[in-house]
Structures are given as C-alpha cells and as structure tokens.
C-alpha cells in the first residue's frame, strides 16, 4: 500500500526524531550551518594542519563523500575535538563550529536507508 504524498514528510520527520538517540556524555564537533564557505575553509585548513586526521577526506578516502565544505569541515572539526579529549574550547574554530549531543552521522544513515 502506497502512502499518500502528504504523509511522507511526517513519516520522515518521525523517523529522524526517533532515530537520533542522545548518548549520555557523548558529543561531536560539527560545522555551523550559518558559517560562510571562506570561514569554514580557513577553519578546515587549521584543523587539518593542527592534529586532525584528514586522510579520510582525500579524494580516495572513505569520508570524501559527500564532497561539501560543510561535511569535510565537520569531519575535521570532530577529529580535532576528539583527539583533544573534547576539551573545552577545542570546538570553536573561530565561531564556525558547535558541539552536538546527537551523532550527526546518523542523519546520513537514516536518510539513505529511507530513500533506498
């Protein structure tokens, strides 16, 4: 039975809300959605040059896709943040990053499993 088109957004929203569990004490450093491209590129370069493991972001790397500044910056920011044991101040990058309490990778898993 096919779902009516109007109910699909509600189904998708309910899947998102129930799929993102909050893990006690866990946090991730992600790029802010309102950060400019230039600011994110500068912060990404800083993170990769200051201890973040950016090897997976190379064109042949496991985390190259999605190939967006937002995704690459989030990966690098979180690598830097985790390598510094989530120390206060290690997730700022000149205001281009923020701490998330839900695992941001779950969004892509949920989105792709819903679509396919």
Automatic annotation (TrEMBL):
- This protein's superkingdom? Eukaryota
Q: Does the keyword Cell cycle apply?
A: no
Which positions make up the signal peptide?
1-25
Write down what this protein is called: X8 domain-containing protein
Keyword Membrane annotated = yes
What are the subcellular locations of this protein?
A: Cell membrane
Q: How does it sit in the membrane?
A: Lipid-anchor; GPI-anchor
Keywords, sorted A to Z:
Glycoprotein, GPI-anchor, Lipoprotein, Membrane, Signal
Location of the X8 domain: 27-107
